[in-house]
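To whoever picks this up:

The parser on our side crashed when reading a file containing two proteins. I've narrowed it down to the boundary between the first structure block and the second sequence. Both blocks are reproduced below exactly, byte for byte. First block:
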Amino acid sequence: MNRIIILLLIFIFSCELLNSPKINIISESDFIELQDLDYTLIDVRTQDEFDLGHIDSAINLDFYSDTFQNDILSIPKNEKIILYCRTNNRSTKTANILKENGFKEISVLEGGITEWVKKGNNINYTTYSD
């Protein structure tokens, strides 16, 4: 009887692991192909880094902000999310936060904005008006 219970528990936990969302790492060329699809692009660098140049249509949620956890978790869980930072450190940490909180479609731009620029892609700059 104990063996059956143990096997049943192993089966339940392995099914749970199979249903766990995965974090997709997408290349710069894969990201370019997604331009026409519906997703939320999030730059998790600081505001100063964002102002120095960001990918078109990105929204900035500063990973180091005191409100970051609340800000990132306020996004609807059914959103398709693509994250990037400078090199993938903060974006990967953010992806794990989202995964742990039930988000399903999470992608990280491989190499972050550093790789994006290195491949010759355009970036936008924040401009201020008086």
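<<boundary where parser fails>>
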Amino acid sequence: MTESKKHRKDEETRPQEGTEQPEAQSAPDENELEALQKAVAALTAQSAEYLDSLQRERASFANYKKRIDQDNHLVYDNALADVIKSFLPVMDDLERALKNKPADPDCEAWISGIALILQKLTKTLDAKGVSAMNVQPGDEFDPAIHEAVTHEENPDYANSQVIEVVQTGYKLKDRVIRPALVRVAK
């Protein structure tokens, strides 16, 4: 072998300066073991604290999303109720037109046309969750769904009973968007 090759081979097998050869690892003493166990316990507690914090934040965010969804539904329902309220006078006019229909047989086509328009409007409102309140004469007056236009003596009805429905009331789902206008017995 040449001298330079031999010198390179010695360098490869010889440990480099500043590095130490690993010695046989000695068993940790009791103090080191206790310190490691305390460190593991502290890290486990910290991990549990982080997990608890993460779970609370996730629950808080889920509640926030639910609240935002509820608020959005409420805003939508309020906007829908406002739009629907503008169509209710049209429903009233169509109902009045059918109650006061002419007796002339030549008007039958007109009467059936008005009835079809009213039916179509009613179906459209039903599709949006709007329904007319079923209030009948003799029902007990309920200020949550009725609005009294008069209180009058009537021998046919007991105190606080509805005598007549003056204007139909409407609900959007379970919410009253327009109370029924009624005459009430006293």
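After patching the parser it read the second block fine. The radius of gyration is 42 Å. The longest strand covers residues 146-152.
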